[in-house]
Design a protein that fits this description.
mainly beta; 5% helix; single chain; 2 helices; 166 residues
Amino acid sequence: MSQAAAEPKIFDELRFGASGSIATGHNHENGVFPEVQLLFNPFGYNPDGDWKDQLTHPRIHLGTSIGTGGSADQLYSGLTWTMTYSSGIFTEAGFGGVVHNGNLTAENDGPKLGCHLLFHEYVGAGYKFDNKWSVMAQVAHSSHADLCDGPNGGMTRAGLLVGYKF
């Protein structure tokens, strides 16, 4: 492991892509959701480290998902744990919070979300083409886990993101 790889970097990776709702019935959201995600590395995540090192050094994520077709916009943040394998494949899980401008209790189509602050979690799997570029398939879910009044329809979206590592 090189010394440069072990040094914490604040700004680590930029991802961009799009997702779509995979919910059914009244919880389905119309439109495509352009997405941008930034990953910060203040804790020294090293993709060349062993699995224990990778899991104990999460990155911080900050992202947005823009609603089209009258669906909710999201701004989310939290922690991301990435496991990188020697084959170029990686898996990832993230957990944090989201603020959105979606329906709370309205009777129109789309999920009834109950409150504007929700939990946000995602899982993904991807492939690193080289030290800079990657692609990742991701499924993300946002809901309040019945911690606020009102319905808890939740938002569940799946999509593809292209990553550029700095």
